[in-house]
Model the fold of this input.
Amino acid sequence: MATNSWEELQAQIIAQALEDEGFRTGVIDNAKAAIAAKFGVNLPAELDIQVHEDTATTTHLVLPATGKLREADLLLAAGGNDPRPGIMSLDDLRELASGENSGS
Done:
């Protein structure tokens, strides 16, 4: 199932979880495995996915990253290499989720 963006993949995950209780349970128990099995998207091991369910009395507010550059990002911007092998940028993650990076 091809996606055009990370946001679209998230919407598909949520829609599937609302329709399929088994998938919902799988996403709660092991999000990466459930996403890989259903959508064929293998997310990087370094990516931490936390799944939270809203209840009648609890809701969750998700704040986006601040966009502040980390030391490694500054090194990359200066033409260096990221010292942490396997760490992906958000753009890389979006490419992966969209299937643009399916060759690796």
